[in-house]
Write a structure and sequence with these properties.
This protein has 3 helices and 19 strands. The protein is mostly beta strands and 310 residues long.
């Protein structure tokens, strides 16, 4: 069992997502950094997709009430286990009574804490992940709080491992995001589209798990074009342009949208969206659909090779 001492700014239970229910408005709500999610589970001895803790911010801490192995991936953190410095992207043994503390985040934004056991939580609609808007899944459908306890089943005894540094993605700004043209790309002025791909944008403090709001040169509509569309299904990574012209990148908490879609972040770059924090610079690069598909296949091969670390 673990007990939360301090949940940081926000900590939730997440897994690889809740799929098959978009037609009734239930989003995936998955771990935003799929690569880090897969890596933390491999480091803690799982080939399947058990739940983990997705957290942002400093001062996270918990106490272990059972012996088990844990790992932290995603953002690089400055932390300790029983006041001994720990390293991100490697598995670490903890004893009953050990205290884990995350003092600050060094690179990136969201970090993932996985364990060598399986959290004893209820699966809802095929997933453990937290849907905060609808208040179900995870730990009572809400972020973790001080004093929350999570029991574990099937705790494994595994050896400590580390991830090859060449495998770990770069999370330093400026973040370069590659974009495939969206269905309504033709709604916007060509000169504004040119500026969108030349200039940089800053991540707004308004951003959250639903979407990343950007500040920068507005993307203006062509004269006479409607600034909204009939609401229809949207994918994670969709770049919507509201009436004020400020781009919003949707994450994993929406199934429909009513704003014109300038583009979609190539799937190969979508894990990086988990690490866009307020104030970070973002640069967009145009990409063909064919190139996006090729990059995605290369990325899938990289994930298959994750299990080959020492």
């Amino acid at each position: 069992m673990i007990e939360i001492i301090n949940p940081g700014l926000q900590s939730i239970v997440a897994d690889n997502g809740r799929y098959g229910f978009a037609d009734i408005g239930v989003p995936a709500s998955s771990a935003l950094d799929g690569f880090a999610y897969k890596a933390v589970n491999l480091l803690t001895g799982h080939l399947n997709s058990p739940p983990v803790i997705e957290s942002i911010g400093p001062m996270f801490s918990l106490v272990f009430h059972s012996n088990m192995t844990f790992a932290i991936t995603g953002a690089w953190v400055d932390g300790t286990i029983d006041d001994r410095p720990l390293t991100s992207w490697q598995s670490i043994k903890a004893k009953k009574g050990s205290i884990l503390k995350i003092k600050r985040v060094l690179k990136g934004f969201r970090y993932y804490l996985g364990f060598s056991g399986i959290m004893d939580l209820e699966k809802i609609m095929g997933s453990y992940t937290t849907n905060m808007e609808c208040h179900f899944g995870g730990y009572g459908g809400r972020p973790l709080k001080k004093g929350d306890t999570i029991r574990f089943t099937f705790i494994k005894e595994i050896s400590e491992k580390s991830m090859d540094s060449d495998t770990i993605p770069n999370m330093d700004p400026p973040h370069i995001l590659r974009v495939v043209d969206g269905p309504e790309e033709g709604f916007f002025r060509e000169d504004c589209i040119g500026v969108f791909f030349r200039e940089s944008y800053k991540v707004s403090p308004k951003s959250n798990r639903t979407g990343v709001t950007l500040a920068g040169p507005p993307v203006e509509f062509k004269e006479g074009v409607e600034k909204s569309i009939i609401s229809e299904g949207v994918l994670p990574g969709t770049i919507q342009i509201p009436g004020d012209g400020m781009p919003v990148i949707l994450l994993h908490e929406r199934t429909v949208g009513g704003y014109a879609r300038l583009g979609v972040i190539a799937r190969v770059d979508q894990d990086l969206l988990a690490h866009l924090k307020p104030g970070d610079d973002v640069v967009f690069k145009r990409l063909s659909l064919g190139d996006a598909e090729q990059l995605w296949m290369q990325r899938q091969k990289k994930i298959k090779n994750l299990s080959k670390f020492d």
